[in-house]
Amino acid sequence: MKKILPFIFALLFAHTAFSQVEEPRSMLDIGFAGGFNMNRMETQPMIRQFFHEGFNGGFNIRYTSERYFNMICAAQLEVNFVQRGLNEDFDDKSDNGYIRTLNYVEVPFFAHLAFGKERRGFQFYINLGPQIGFFIGESENYIGNWNISSRPTTIQPIYGKSIENKFEYGIAGGLGLEFKSIIGNFFIEGRYFYGLSDVFHNSKSDDFARSANTSIYARLGYSITLFNK
Known about the structure:
Blueprint: H1 4-21, E1 22-44, E2 49-50, E3 52-68, E4 71-88, E5 97-116, E6 121-143, E7 167-181, E8 184-195, E9 210-228
Antiparallel strand pairs: 1-3, 1-9, 2-4, 3-4, 4-5, 5-6, 6-7, 7-8, 8-9
């Protein structure tokens, strides 16, 4: 008991101290954002690639619950359409090419941590959290006069191979700047997604041991505050 009591008192002191600096908030924002993203598919065996360029856009909702010192704490949920894919680098000084576009509906869930003005002015923010995605369609574009038999045997299975894992998950994070004004909130953000799941099956008997998406985003957005208490 003598060992436990000091620990309990320490917890009570910490709770009291944080309660004094914690400032509760109740603010709800809704908005939309869109932009440009570049994707690479990490594969094993490795496929030489350029970045695959695509579009991303969707809606977001954010609930701000509190402020600790100068840090504004919120949770943010999004639903976006995004184009990922693979753009093969043939490295043969020709105009041949292969581009595969993968369309997803993605749902990131972020811890949103912001610093700056709460009502009018600029905020710098960090988004970080898990993300899931649902594959909804694809297209393949064969460019030039090449044929599959001319490609290295280690990567031939990529051509025409149907997507095998239609559920995607990974980790996403970003840095952004938001301007809060009387007519709404405008923001710009850079974001990175690292896929933890594979597009194709990855057992020892399958063609690929690794086939995961990684994406870089540039996004512009706008939101409005529904209430702020």
